[in-house]
UniProtKB/TrEMBL annotation, chain A:
PANTHER family, per the entry: THIOREDOXIN
Catalytic residue list: 11, 14
InterPro entries with a match to the protein in the record: Thioredoxin-like_fold, Thioredoxin-like_sf, THIRX-like_proc
Thioredoxin-like fold domain segment(s): 3-76
Record's protein name: Thioredoxin-like fold domain-containing protein
Disulfide bonding pattern of the chain: 11-14
Keywords: Disulfide bond, Redox-active center
TrEMBL record, chain B:
Native organism: Marinomonas aquimarina
GO cellular component: plasma membrane
High-level lineage: Bacteria, Pseudomonadati, Pseudomonadota, Gammaproteobacteria, Oceanospirillales
Any Pfam family the entry gives: ArsP_1
Main localisation: membrane
Name assigned to this protein: Putative permease
Length: 77, 329
C-alpha cells in the first residue's frame, strides 16, 4: 500500500489534490492511504515551499499546484 | 481601445434591457456591464500572456537568488520578487519557512510576503485599465516602499527573537550552513509554458471572477446611488481623521486587490481624496485577520501584533502623505 501525504494549509486546492489521488487510485485499483498534513514543521521537513505538495512513500513528488491526471497516474503505477 | 466595452454596455443596458441613460439604475447597470466585461477580457488575455513569460519563475528560484544577498539589496529584491512571483496566500507559511531555513533574514522574507498581496499582475492590470498609468505607478511605488521599509524595520528591531522556536532553529541552521551550488539550468519548452499559462489563467480566473462582480457591484452602487457630490462635500477635504478611520474600516473588510480596485475607481470618481482611498484599499487587502492567524504557526503573538500595528501605521502615513501632496500630483 502506498502512503500518500498531501501537504498544505487546508485550502481548497489541497482538498482537490487529495480527492484526485484517491479517485485515480480507485480507478487503477491501487491501494493507497491518503493523509492531509497541515503542520508547518512537516513543510520544513520535506523542504516544501509551495502547496499543495504530494509526498508518496516519503518521497516528494510534486509541489505548487493541483497535479495533472497523467502525473498522478504515473506516480501510482 | 476600451471603447468597445462602452458600446457593448450601451447596447446591453439601453437597448436590450431598455433602461434610460438618465436614470440612476440605468447609470449603475451601464457602469457594471462596462467594467465587468472589460475586466474579464483583460484578465483572461493578460494573465495568460504574463504567465507565459514567467513560467520558469517560482519561489524556489527566488529563494536561491535571495540567499546570501546583502541586506539593503535584499529588501528591495525581496519586495520586487514579492510583486512578480506567483504564489497563493495559502502558501505563505511554507514560503516563510523555506526562506528562513535558507538563512534569509526575517526582514527580507517579510518584504516579500508584505508586498505580495498588495502588488500582483491582476492588481496592476485593473489599476491600469480603471485608473490610468499614473495612479498605477504611484500604487506600485507605495506598495513596494511599505514592503521594503517594513522589512528593514523588522530586522532593525531583531524580529527573529519572536519567531516560534522551531523557526528560530531553522533560521540559525540556515545561516550557518554552506549553501549548495545551485544548478539553475532548467529550461521550459513552449508547450510546457503554454500548459503552465493555461493552468494559471484558469486558476486565477476561477479565484477572482466573483471578486470582480462584488467589487464592481459595490462600485456601481456607489456610482449610481450615492448622491453626486455627497462624498466630496463631507470627505473631500481630506480631514486628518478620515485617513485612520479609513484604515480601521478596512481591517474587518477582507478582500483581495481584485475586489477592491473597482471600489477605488468609484470612490475616486466620487471625489474621495487619493490618500484616503489608498489607505482604505491597502488596509482591506493587506491587513486581514484570517491570514495573520495563519502566520501564528511560525510567529509569536508579539511579532504578529508588531507586524499588524506596523502595517496600520504605515497605511495611515501613506494616506496623510498623499492627501498632503495631492495638489502636486
Amino acid at each position: 500500500m502506498k502512503q500518500v501525504k498531501v501537504l498544505g494549509s487546508g485550502c481548497t486546492k489541497c482538498q482537490k489534490t487529495a480527492e484526485l489521488i484517491e479517485r485515480i487510485a480507485a480507478e487503477q485499483g491501487v491501494e493507497v492511504s491518503v493523509s492531509k498534513e497541515t503542520d508547518a514543521q512537516t513543510f520544513l521537513q520535506y523542504g516544501v515551499m509551495s502547496t499543495p505538495a504530494v509526498v508518496i512513500d516519503e518521497e516528494l513528488k510534486h509541489s505548487g499546484s493541483i497535479p495533472h491526471t497523467d502525473q498522478v497516474k504515473a506516480w501510482l503505477s | 481601445m476600451f471603447e468597445v466595452f462602452t458600446r457593448f454596455a450601451d447596447w446591453l443596458a439601453y437597448e436590450v434591457m431598455s433602461l434610460s441613460p438618465a436614470s440612476k439604475v440605468g447609470d449603475a447597470v451601464h457602469f457594471f456591464i462596462e467594467d465587468v466585461s472589460k475586466i474579464y477580457v483583460l484578465l483572461l488575455v493578460m494573465i495568460y500572456l504574463i504567465a507565459l513569460l514567467r513560467a520558469s519563475l517560482n519561489v524556489e528560484r527566488v529563494r536561491n537568488y535571495l540567499a546570501g544577498k546583502n541586506r539593503a539589496a535584499g529588501y528591495v529584491l525581496g519586495s520586487g520578487f514579492g510583486a512578480i512571483t506567483p504564489f497563493c496566500s495559502c502558501s505563505s507559511i511554507p514560503v516563510f519557512l523555506g526562506f528562513t531555513s535558507a538563512g534569509i533574514p526575517v526582514g527580507i522574507t517579510m518584504s516579500f510576503l508584505l508586498t505580495s498581496p498588495l502588488i500582483n499582475e491582476v492588481a496592476v492590470l485593473l489599476l491600469m485599465s480603471l485608473l490610468g498609468w499614473k495612479f498605477t505607478l504611484l500604487y506600485i511605488v507605495v506598495g513596494m516602499t511599505v514592503g521594503i521599509l517594513g522589512g528593514a524595520f523588522l530586522d532593525a528591531i531583531k524580529a527573529e527573537r519572536w519567531l516560534q522556536s522551531f523557526a528560530q532553529k531553522a533560521l540559525a541552521a540556515g545561516q550557518n550552513a554552506q549553501l549548495p551550488e545551485q544548478q539553475d539550468t532548467e529550461t521550459l519548452s513552449m508547450a510546457e509554458r503554454h500548459r503552465f499559462a493555461k493552468d494559471e489563467t484558469l486558476d486565477i480566473f476561477s479565484r477572482v471572477w466573483k471578486w470582480v462582480i462584488i467589487g464592481v457591484g459595490l462600485g456601481a452602487a456607489l456610482h449610481g446611488f450615492v448622491p453626486d457630490g455627497w462624498i466630496e462635500q463631507y470627505l473631500g477635504d481630506g480631514q486628518w481623521w478620515t485617513v485612520p478611520a479609513a484604515v480601521v474600516l478596512g481591517i474587518p473588510l477582507y478582500s483581495n486587490a481584485t475586489g477592491v480596485i473597482p471600489v477605488m475607481e468609484s470612490l475616486i470618481q466620487n471625489g474621495l481624496p487619493i490618500g484616503t482611498t489608498l489607505a482604505f484599499c491597502m488596509s482591506t487587502v493587506a491587513a486581514s485577520f484570517p491570514e495573520f492567524i495563519l502566520l501564528k504557526q511560525v510567529m509569536q503573538w508579539r511579532l504578529l501584533a508588531t507586524v499588524f500595528v506596523m502595517l496600520l501605521l504605515s497605511f495611515t502615513l501613506v494616506g496623510w502623505l498623499f492627501n498632503g501632496f495631492s495638489s502636486f500630483l
